[in-house]
Amino acid sequence: MMTKRSVAAALLLAGAQTVGAGEALDTRSELELTPQARHTVLTEMRGFVVGLQRITAALSEEDMRTVAEVARSLGTAAAQETPPEVMKQLPAEFRQLGFSVHRDFDQIALDAESLEDRDHTLRQVSEAMNGCVACHAAYQIRTVTE
After folding, report:
1. Would you tell me which of 38, 61, 86, 109 could form a disulfide with 33, CB atoms 3.0–4.6 Å apart?
2. Half-sphere exposure of residue 95, counting CA atoms within 13 Å on the CB side?
């Protein structure tokens, strides 16, 4: 099981290659996005963070109704709101990873309602967050002019 520190260290080291004494080169793939596309992608990512915080708080209270409600708001219906012009700028692998995370939230919502098992949901949230970690380890965003 990874601790908070090991996850933080993994994120810091992910995509980094040592260049010299204390210097690291970021080797993550660059997503070249227009300012509007960058705003859209980062807004969605911040939504995941806010949603995960709300889900975690609801789990601590064993409020599975709220867990399901929040998870559903992060599911595949939310992905459909991304404008086509933004989707065209994203590589297929990035889109697949994003859709996978959205599908994870759909399943979390379904299971939270039907199973009402906090431990099961907590494991699902941990798995969904692996998608977040993988994305941040693999990609960085660079803004380009339109």
Report:
1. 38
2. 11
